[in-house]
Amino acid sequence: MQGPRGQQNPGDNIHETVGAYALGILDDAEATAFEAHLATCEWCGQQLDELAGMEPMLAALADLPASQGTPAIGESLAARPSPQLAERLVDEVSERRAVKRRRGLYLVAAAAALIIGGPLTVMAVNGGGTTTTASPDSAMATSPAKAAFDVMTDKKSATDPSTKVNAVVAIEKKDWGTHAVLQLKNVKGPLKCSLIAVGKNGERETVTSWSVPNWGYGIANAKTEEAKKPLYVHGGAAFNPSEIDHFEVMTFDGKRLVEVNV
């Protein structure tokens, strides 16, 4: 670590103390001396701010168990961090672990809802903007998307005269907005696509996205049963059904495959 220019003599290494100070391994006299220097040294202040972001990582590393013949990382330090710093590190690591546990519980709950057949679970697990490799209905006896599609009554369909892609969109009102299920036919890959809900006010929301394999979906004259099956995907939009003007199936490179008016 190089010190700032013009603030200390070449032989003065007080700037190198910033790392030890961040770890809390200076004795009281050394810490007091460095704090006096820190009050007038902007460069050391900046370095201390940067090192502060490494504290949780260092604390986590210190928790790693010792391997055969090698002490644990925490035991290899020449001195323990100060009680104040150690308490801060433990609190941060504990909070990060708690967040991971909560996140794991959310995923388990979402997976359970998907098995039961609850709608919108794909969106809950994947989040907005992610892309999944979708499978045709043959991938399981009854996919959640197709099961929802079969019982939904509000459906609109369209076939694009240019691309020949056929889409049927089923929608239902939810407290949070609109649950939409797409049935897609006569589309060949490889493609990455999204279902877009377009509001009457012109706003656009991505409902869900997926990948189309080379063999495609819903190809009537396909050689394999897998390629003959239509694609079913579902997701949600914040729009109420009455606020939606139409849906668009768009490729990631901006080509519209089909538009379905609501």
Automatic annotation (TrEMBL):
Transmembrane segments: 104-125
Xref: InterPro entries: Anti_sigma_zinc_sf, Znf_put
Record keyword Transmembrane helix present: yes
Residue ranges of domain Putative zinc-finger in the record: 14-44
Superkingdom per UniProt: Bacteria
Keywords: Membrane, Transcription, Transcription regulation, Transmembrane, Transmembrane helix
UniProt keyword Methyltransferase present: no
Protein name: RNA polymerase subunit sigma
